[in-house]
């Protein structure tokens, strides 16, 4: 199948090259069609059910339900970032959730190959929904740490905060002020940054979260999501 | 929401972990899932054909028959299945809708049978996928038209609504001459006079024999000047009267005046009036003669009488780009060849090719294969290029013309279909948007009404669906809880457009004033009353507080939100508890209330609104 695709591509390129020489421009349409074709032939199958059961803390039934939903939306077996954003945006019709979805995608895509397979998906979910509170806090820290260098700077936090506020959209009460995210970030750093060095490390983060009752309580919300 | 997306709700809720550590307010308690959705098959027996699917698949669309508890009416105890006495072939498509989220229309099925099945199972036809929607709508329209025609033929054509005004009936008579004999008479009379007027214009210029003392022929116009003038006057009278009547009867005068037909009418009768006004001055009579040319525009008035002419005009208009391209390529070729011929013929003396523009005439005549012969090349080079010119002329003209012809026929058919497709799209999109916004607004409805019964009514009224949404709110509850968590994280709330506008206005207006009346007056909209309250509180300086301003703002918001939200958390829990457990839940809520009271020690003392604050608390607990 791949060979046939390659041969067709060659012929098309040859015929196109004449007109390309003529005026130097090229037809982006055919190029993108080739790209789409490539992507759709990729088909990823997840590892066996038993293996996933070992790797995650979900039961067999839960994995089945999760996979069925996953496969329905992504028949090719992997989610790319655009599909991810589209799915996530369906839950937030009023705002723009694409930035936050992008950060989530980065957090789920552990091997950084630009697509989230079912294993990545389910491992991530397992940590959030079935992990200990420490695991969850670690995962959240990993989400905030955009460049994965072990500490959260104010800029990173500001990006995250803006993306969360973007999800609210325009029609909010009270009217969304321009500096609301920045204020929020200041509060956050005041709470979390113990040694006032401008960054929040993982230890500061976990320590401060463990001291905050609200956060501890909210972490327990995830116990019975599935 | 799309089918598969409902299955991703656990993921969306898990993704909320990113909000938790940064939230400035505690999260609302999770919804109590009393009814765990059972995994398992459902067997649907449709007239003997058995279909099996997961229970969850059907429950993706809780506002349809199969997704709600309405299907319990069809439950058959003995065989443990749901029996429907309907068409299994069409049911297949309906079940596929649940499975894939897309509804298709099978072309071989009868449209009315399909419609009936959709109505029975509570599915709105607007969600038919793009692949099948056009076909569906076309068939439906044909069907209704046929039914309508049948009815028309039965009743006869006596469909004059008795209560039309004079003006409306006049306009109707003008637009559809077949409605009454009077209109028909008028139609034929005007048509006759248009023809007479055009004929008169033509005959006017025919030479009519010599008069006694002239050498050359005179035209009939000059010979029988009076007769022609009377005829012209009569025609213009008729046309003027017609134009004025149309102007009076038009429902939108401005639109009528702008329309092409009215411009043609005006241009047709203007020359006569201008001629009346102008004196018999020799200088201007030349210009007056030119004006008479415009009288020929009367022939365009025939387009009211001929549909074909109208369609031709429309297709020309819509073919403008192709015609423009033809014109452009011809111009290019003409300029090229004219230049070449000019320079080629420059050498020969007594050449007619005096300049490039003069050569244009030769090029046009040659390329269109007319070949008048008034300009011919004399040099050999000129003849060579002349032959190339005529050969390429054939190509340049012959190639685009069939394209234009096929464009005409395509555009002709397409223009008939484009109009109806555009009309369909608008209504269809607006209905889908209404159904979708039902989802977004459902959350706001929950917040506003706070009672299950109200929310039900609102949701069903808004979405305009056939069936009321029964109690199957698991997905909705969890989704609303998710949105609620986001609100808590950011300390802002979702509102709809109107509330947003009013609150923005109030922020600017209420700041200086301290009038209480707006807050105390009971408003059905708990949100707006608290909105005005909040703004007033913000404008006050709490002197004894030693918190930072940012913190204060958030604590203030915290307290007000708590107070305002109490009815909501009540409702949400009552939603799940099904009205039985509201009392115990009250006891759970005090932590929020006491926190609010503790964190706002001073306002009851320093502000005159303290009384209101207390009364607000009183009002809430009375709930």
TrEMBL record, chain A:
Signal peptide coordinates:
none
Q: Would the keyword Repressor turn up in this protein's UniProt record? A: no
- Protein's cellular compartments: Cell membrane
Q: Which UniProt keywords apply?
A: Calcium, Cell membrane, Ion channel, Ion transport, Membrane, Metal-binding, Potassium, Potassium channel, Potassium transport, Repeat, Transport, Voltage-gated channel
- Residue intervals of the EF-hand domain: 96-131, 132-167, 180-215
- Read off the Pfam families from this record: EF-hand_7 (PF13499), EF-hand_8 (PF13833)
Source species, domain of life: Eukaryota
Q: Name one GO biological process term.
A: regulation of potassium ion transmembrane transport
Q: Which PROSITE patterns match?
A: EF_HAND_1, EF_HAND_2
Q: Which GO terms describe its cellular component?
A: voltage-gated potassium channel complex
Write out the GO MF terms. Answer: calcium ion binding; potassium channel activity; potassium channel regulator activity
What family does the Swiss-Prot or TrEMBL record give for this protein?
A: Belongs to the recoverin family.
> Which protein is depicted?
Potassium voltage-gated channel interacting protein 2
